[in-house]
Structure formats: C-alpha cells, structure tokens
Automatic annotation (TrEMBL):
The lineage of its organism: unclassified sequences, metagenomes, ecological metagenomes. GO terms for molecular function: undecaprenyldiphospho-muramoylpentapeptide beta-N-acetylglucosaminyltransferase activity. Keywords: Glycosyltransferase, Transferase. This is UDP-N-acetylglucosamine--N-acetylmuramyl-(Pentapeptide) pyrophosphoryl-undecaprenol N-acetylglucosamine transferase. Residues 4-124 form the Glycosyl transferase family 28 C-terminal domain.
Amino acid sequence: MKERNIRIIHQAGEKNIDEVRSAYEALGIDAEVFGFTTHLADYMKEADLAIARAGASTLWELAATALPALFIPYPYAAGDHQYYNALFLEEKELAWIMREEEIDTEKVLALLDEDLESKSRGLMEIVEKDGSKKIAALLTDYAKI
C-alpha cells in the first residue's frame, strides 16, 4: 500500500474498531480506524475513492460530494435493496459494485488506476443542484397546509 501512496481511512462500527484495527495490523497495513465522527465530510474531501455499503443515504452522500465509490452491498438487506441502490450509479458508469464473495484485492487496487476524475464529474452532473434548498422549501410549503 505504501508503494502506491494509499492512505486507508476506515470507519468501522463502534463495536468493531479493535477487531478492524487488529486485522490491519496483522496484515502490516497502516490504517486510521475510527467509529463515529462528526468530521466525516472532511475525510470524504480528502479521499479519491470510497469503499462502502450501499444504503441510500451513504450512496447519495458520496454522490453529493462527487466521491467515486466501490459499493459492497450488505448481503442481508431486505430485497437486496443496497445492490439496486448501487446499480443505479453503476449503470451510469459512475460507480462499481462487488458482492462480498467477489472481493479481490487486485481488482480493488485496479480501481485506483481508473479515471476517477471523470467519475467525479459525472456524479456532479446527476446530483440535484440546490437540493437542500428545494427540500426546505417543500417542507415549508407543507407546514403551511
């Protein structure tokens, strides 16, 4: 990882921090592992690629920050909805999907050689501009009813 100048920042569940940190250490990989943070947006700004589950909020947060991602859908999600969430972006060639059983280190590392900038530009194009203002206006109008 060091020879490719890859920095790993891993948000793990609070219960899994020690286990995840130990796994990286056992592999000799330097990684910053944390549970909850109020500074996630700062980490996202620094990143070139995210590897994440594909819940709707996560997917759109990554899209809104124009951060290309490899999505690994949670295999037990109802109706496989995380896969279908990610498929929306993959079909537009703006993200990648790997099932847990398909994860391959070389394939993941190869994504770093992809044109991440064009993916980022594509993500910027599909995200609704001023979306939060539009939602606030809708809520304000609804509250008047």
